[in-house]
Design brief:
Blueprint: E1 55-57, E2 62-67, E3 76-81, E4 96-101, E5 105-109, E6 115-128, E7 134-142, H1 143-150, E8 155-156, E9 167-172, E10 177-192, E11 195-203, E12 217-220, E13 226-233, E14 246-248, E15 254-255, E16 261-265, E17 273-274, E18 278-279
Parallel strand pairs: 2-8
Antiparallel strand pairs: 1-2, 1-5, 2-3, 3-7, 4-6, 5-6, 6-7, 9-10, 9-12, 10-11, 10-14, 11-16, 12-13, 13-16, 14-15, 17-18
């Protein structure tokens, strides 16, 4: 996992930076004081500009304000990050956190990676590291309030599965930095330490995400929609250990790809988000694990 940036706690983290399972920031990785420009990808008439608007910085990770196509202005806004970025610690294998009170704060960024507001959670609506690595915080602000007060629209979750070869950007609110690459393929199972994730997105080698990028939205550069949440990478070439996830195919064959990073797909959570930004795990098509 890309380790959350938490000093001593980092030593116990499974995850590579951002998430090792993706990368969360470490105590020695102090948050930057200056803005790093987004790296520029090749452009075409179909490419939508991708910037930092709607991303957030957590105390130890990255995240984003997200919505579905059906979300309404008066719905409480949702912030998405990794399950391993929860302030309550890593959920155990098989554990699902739902509707747990939280007052966590998030720094909301505009397109130029400048902080424009501090948003506050009312609860952890959902969190897990089983099958996927995701957390969804419900905020005290609505989508409409965030847009009217700060001019920031939530990022839309794509309801369709990303395709191999798609150009993507990993946008880190913590580091105020973007990483540009493509979807290299998919891991049937991605195993790291005690955790196993299903159908993970594998990036091409250009996305060299680091600690603190955990929870960053992965955006399709042609649509600007969120297709995954950044979460881990193989740091040392070890097999299936903390910070060194391995791929396991349907026949059980294990493949190790040192230096390659991964994200967890988000299209399968779209059916779980219903009116009022509530999470309904029983809804048809909802792919999130139940408690």
């Amino acid at each position: 996992m890309k380790k959350p940036l938490v000093g001593a706690f980092l030593a116990t983290l499974l995850i590579g930076a951002g998430a090792s399972p993706a990368f969360a920031a470490t105590g020695q990785d102090a948050a930057p004081t200056s803005t790093t420009s987004a790296s520029k990808a090749s452009t075409s008439l179909k490419v939508k500009a991708v910037d930092f608007a709607g991303t957030v910085a957590l105390s130890n990770c990255s995240g984003s304000v997200v919505r579905t196509a059906a979300s309404q202005p008066n719905d409480p806004a949702l912030v998405m990050s990794n399950g391993h970025c929860l302030e309550t610690g890593f959920p155990a294998p098989g554990q699902v956190v739902v509707n747990r009170a939280s007052s966590r704060t998030f720094s909301l960024l505009n397109g130029a990676a400048q902080k424009v507001a501090t948003l506050r959670a009312s609860k952890i609506a959902y969190g897990t590291m089983t099958d996927t690595d995701v957390s969804l915080y419900q905020l005290t602000s609505t989508y409409g309030q965030i847009e009217s007060q700060y001019g920031i629209k939530a990022l839309e979750l794509d309801a369709t599965r990303p395709a191999q070869g798609k150009a993507i950007k990993v946008v880190s609110g913590y580091w105020k930095k973007t990483y540009s690459c493509n979807v290299d393929g998919f891991a049937y199972r991605l195993k790291e330490g005690s955790w196993t994730w299903k159908d993970s997105v594998r990036y091409t080698s250009a996305c060299q995400t680091i600690g603190g990028t955990s929870g960053s939205p992965v955006l399709d550069t042609s649509s600007g929609k969120v297709v995954a949440v950044n979460n881990t990478g193989n740091e040392d070439g070890q097999s299936c250990t903390d910070n060194n996830p391995c791929e396991v195919d349907e026949a059980g064959k294990v493949t190790v790809r040192q230096g390659i990073n991964y994200g967890q797909q988000t299209y399968n959570m779209v059916p779980c988000i219903v009116a009022g930004s509530k999470i309904d795990l029983t809804r048809p098509g909802c792919g999130l694990p139940k408690p």
